[in-house]
Amino acid sequence: MTYTIERWADERAVAATGDRTRVARAVGKAALAARPAAGRPLGAALGILGLARLTGRTGAGPVPRRVAALLAPPLGRHPLLAAATTALLAVAALSSAEAARDLHRLLESVGI
Question: Of the candidates 8, 32, 55, 105, which lies 20 to 30 Å from 66 by C-alpha distance?
Protein backbone atom coordinates (compact mmCIF):
# COMPACT_ATOMS: atom_id res chain seq x y z
CA MET A 1 0.00 0.00 0.00
CA THR A 2 2.79 2.41 0.89
CA TYR A 3 4.54 1.79 -2.42
CA THR A 4 1.36 2.51 -4.37
CA ILE A 5 0.78 5.77 -2.50
CA GLU A 6 4.39 6.80 -3.08
CA ARG A 7 4.06 6.03 -6.81
CA TRP A 8 0.87 8.09 -6.96
CA ALA A 9 2.70 10.98 -5.30
CA ASP A 10 5.56 10.56 -7.77
CA GLU A 11 3.18 10.80 -10.72
CA ARG A 12 1.53 13.88 -9.21
CA ALA A 13 4.98 15.46 -8.89
CA VAL A 14 5.65 14.64 -12.55
CA ALA A 15 2.34 16.25 -13.50
CA ALA A 16 3.28 19.37 -11.53
CA THR A 17 6.85 19.67 -12.83
CA GLY A 18 6.51 18.08 -16.26
CA ASP A 19 9.93 16.42 -15.91
CA ARG A 20 10.12 12.72 -15.04
CA THR A 21 13.93 12.76 -14.80
CA ARG A 22 13.95 15.62 -12.31
CA VAL A 23 11.43 13.85 -10.07
CA ALA A 24 13.43 10.59 -10.29
CA ARG A 25 16.58 12.42 -9.20
CA ALA A 26 14.70 14.08 -6.33
CA VAL A 27 13.35 10.72 -5.12
CA GLY A 28 16.84 9.21 -5.21
CA LYS A 29 18.43 12.16 -3.41
CA ALA A 30 15.70 12.18 -0.76
CA ALA A 31 16.27 8.47 -0.11
CA LEU A 32 20.00 9.03 0.27
CA ALA A 33 19.49 12.01 2.59
CA ALA A 34 16.81 10.39 4.77
CA ARG A 35 17.65 9.18 8.23
CA PRO A 36 17.25 5.44 8.67
CA ALA A 37 14.20 4.29 10.59
CA ALA A 38 14.81 2.79 14.01
CA GLY A 39 15.80 -0.82 13.68
CA ARG A 40 16.59 -0.57 9.97
CA PRO A 41 20.19 -0.58 8.85
CA LEU A 42 21.53 2.05 6.48
CA GLY A 43 20.66 1.28 2.89
CA ALA A 44 17.60 -0.84 3.66
CA ALA A 45 15.23 1.56 1.92
CA LEU A 46 17.43 1.59 -1.14
CA GLY A 47 17.45 -2.18 -1.38
CA ILE A 48 21.24 -2.36 -1.52
CA LEU A 49 21.93 -4.61 1.45
CA GLY A 50 21.34 -7.89 -0.31
CA LEU A 51 18.63 -8.87 2.17
CA ALA A 52 16.61 -10.39 -0.64
CA ARG A 53 18.79 -13.49 -0.57
CA LEU A 54 18.35 -13.88 3.18
CA THR A 55 14.59 -13.28 3.29
CA GLY A 56 13.71 -15.13 0.09
CA ARG A 57 12.51 -11.93 -1.55
CA THR A 58 13.97 -11.01 -4.88
CA GLY A 59 14.03 -7.72 -6.73
CA ALA A 60 15.06 -4.21 -5.90
CA GLY A 61 13.85 -2.17 -2.95
CA PRO A 62 11.07 0.42 -3.21
CA VAL A 63 13.25 3.41 -4.10
CA PRO A 64 15.02 1.82 -7.10
CA ARG A 65 11.65 0.55 -8.33
CA ARG A 66 10.15 4.04 -8.02
CA VAL A 67 13.08 5.63 -9.84
CA ALA A 68 12.92 2.99 -12.60
CA ALA A 69 9.19 3.61 -13.00
CA LEU A 70 9.79 7.34 -13.28
CA LEU A 71 12.52 6.89 -15.87
CA ALA A 72 10.36 4.53 -17.97
CA PRO A 73 7.85 5.99 -20.44
CA PRO A 74 4.53 6.87 -18.77
CA LEU A 75 1.75 4.34 -19.02
CA GLY A 76 -1.14 5.18 -21.31
CA ARG A 77 -4.82 5.10 -20.51
CA HIS A 78 -6.75 1.93 -21.29
CA PRO A 79 -10.46 2.70 -21.82
CA LEU A 80 -11.22 -0.93 -22.73
CA LEU A 81 -9.78 -2.11 -19.42
CA ALA A 82 -11.84 0.47 -17.54
CA ALA A 83 -14.99 -0.63 -19.37
CA ALA A 84 -14.27 -4.30 -18.65
CA THR A 85 -13.72 -3.54 -14.96
CA THR A 86 -16.98 -1.59 -14.79
CA ALA A 87 -18.85 -4.43 -16.49
CA LEU A 88 -17.35 -6.99 -14.13
CA LEU A 89 -18.34 -4.94 -11.08
CA ALA A 90 -21.87 -4.52 -12.45
CA VAL A 91 -22.21 -8.28 -12.99
CA ALA A 92 -20.93 -8.93 -9.46
CA ALA A 93 -23.41 -6.45 -7.97
CA LEU A 94 -26.33 -7.92 -9.92
CA SER A 95 -25.31 -11.44 -8.94
CA SER A 96 -25.18 -10.44 -5.28
CA ALA A 97 -28.63 -8.87 -5.51
CA GLU A 98 -30.03 -12.00 -7.17
CA ALA A 99 -28.46 -14.23 -4.51
CA ALA A 100 -29.97 -12.07 -1.76
CA ARG A 101 -33.39 -12.30 -3.42
CA ASP A 102 -33.08 -16.10 -3.69
CA LEU A 103 -32.09 -16.34 -0.03
CA HIS A 104 -35.07 -14.21 0.95
CA ARG A 105 -37.44 -16.47 -1.00
CA LEU A 106 -35.88 -19.58 0.55
CA LEU A 107 -36.26 -18.20 4.06
CA GLU A 108 -39.88 -17.22 3.35
CA SER A 109 -40.70 -20.71 2.08
CA VAL A 110 -39.20 -22.27 5.21
CA GLY A 111 -41.14 -19.85 7.39
CA ILE A 112 -38.28 -17.97 8.98
Answer: 55
Where b means 16+ CB within 10 Å and e means fewer, 19-32 reads ebeebbebbbeebe
Do 19 and 10 contact (CB within 8 A), yes or no? no
pLDDT per residue as tens digits for the range 75-108: 888 999 999 999 999 999 999 999 999 999 999 9
86 in helix, strand or coil? helix
Say yes or no: 11 and 26 in one domain: yes
Same domain, 27 and 49: yes
Do 44 and 90 fall into the same domain? no
The pTM of the whole model exceeds 0.90 = no
